[in-house]
Amino acid sequence: MKTSWNLAQVWNRSLEEKKEKQVKARDHIWASEMGGSFIDRYLKMKGESYTNPPNARSLRKFEAGNIMEWLVGIVLKRAGILIESQEWVKYTYSGLLPVTGRADYIAGGNPDWDKAKEEIQMLGLPEFFDRATNNLIDYFSREYPKGLETVVLEIKSCGSMMYERYEKVNKPNANHRLQLFHYLKAKEMPEGRVIYISKDDLRILEFGIFNPSTVEDEYKQDVRIMTDYYTKQEQPPLESLVIFDKDTGKFSKNWKVEYSNYLTKLYGYEQPMDYAKEWEAKVSQWNRVLTRLVKGDNITVKNILVIDEMKEMYSNFDDMVKTAKLVRLAEPELEENEE
Predict the structure, then answer these.
(1) Beta carbons of 104 and 86 less than 8 angstroms apart
(2) What is d(CA 75, CA 82) in angstroms, rounded to the nearest whole number?
(3) I need a labelling partner for 139 at 20 to 30 A (CA). Which of 210, 267, 295, 324 fits?
(4) Residue 286 exposed, middle or buried by CB count within 10 Å (0-12, 13-18, 19+)
């Protein structure tokens, strides 16, 4: 029996209706791309059309992230500490390409806390947000009676698995800290925060980024490399299909490949799931054998074949094993392994 109207159909279709932006040639770096694949960034700057534009799932995840960011903005605004949102800023080192980007939020100041509480009551937030916002106001008014330092906030939403990884390694992704540092450099501000929100349970992680700091070395190196490729009209090399994470001491799929907008052109996979299907099992197998090496377990004939595969891809495999031992032997318990 047909219903009179269908909320789900309209809602889901609306999430996927975002018009794809035309790729246009440009001579500047986007802050949001820093730390990402140089070859993808090069092709985008040259104006080459995507072979793999964002699919429906990617668009839905993007909009979910926008909702999380919007919620944070509402809380900041009603708490009276939102100064600026979505401000475009630009910075250029002498002789290098300019970097441009849009800061999520700039927050701080010395608001009227009583008025802020009244604003919260009028907003009619869900109970959790109402409680969290009032707790923020109570805490800030008590601990910072002379006002809050002005900082840049970069909001990122993620699944619980990535959230727990950030929590474990106790630092933000390189691309996120470079993006945030750009805003600090361009605004000549001393401090910013990368904030991760778990979409699964609304937990929040917060990491401070400072100016000046060693992050500028990473930032400037990224700009220098990209400038060099662009000015020499030299296409950067392909990304490795599998990466070794020094923070966790494990192999993983390469997100720079899996989510490349040129996945088919560069790597021959029609869809991200095709790449994932080919490499997920292989990465799991490599990590199982790597764990045996870390623990000093007996190595089987099958294990030796897998080790040969890893050495074929990585000439510095022995150094990777040493790194894995340093990182993972400090863990309370290593996972059990299969041959």
Answers:
(1) yes
(2) 9
(3) 210
(4) buried
Round to whole Å and give the CA distance between 324 and 251: 10
CATH number of 21-230: 3.90.320.10
| Cβ atoms of 56 and 48 closer than 8 Å | no
- Cβ neighbour number for residue 170 with a 10 Å cutoff: 9
**Is the Cβ–Cβ distance between 48 and 245 less than 8 Å?**
no
Rounded Cα distance, 161 and 163, in Å? 5
Residue with tokens 């929590």: 167
How many whole angstroms separate alpha carbon 97 and alpha carbon 218? Answer: 15
pTM (two decimals): 0.89
Token pair of 299 as six digits: 């190595």
d(CA 222, CA 236): 13
Listed in order, strand segments (DSSP E) in the chain are 29-30, 82-91, 99-109, 148-158, 191-198, 204-210, 242-245, 250-253
Question: How would you write the pLDDT of the chain (339 residues) with one tens digit per residue?
Answer: 566 777 777 777 777 776 777 899 999 999 999 999 999 999 999 999 999 998 888 888 888 888 889 888 887 887 789 999 999 999 999 999 999 999 999 999 988 888 877 877 777 777 777 777 778 788 888 888 888 999 999 999 999 999 999 999 999 999 999 999 999 999 999 999 999 999 888 888 999 999 999 999 999 999 999 999 999 999 999 999 999 999 999 999 999 999 999 999 999 999 999 999 999 999 999 999 999 999 999 999 999 999 999 999 999 999 999 999 999 887 765 554 444
Q: Where are the domains of the chain?
A: 21-230, 239-328
Distance CA 51, CA 325 (A): 40
The tokens describing 36, both together, are 């990402």
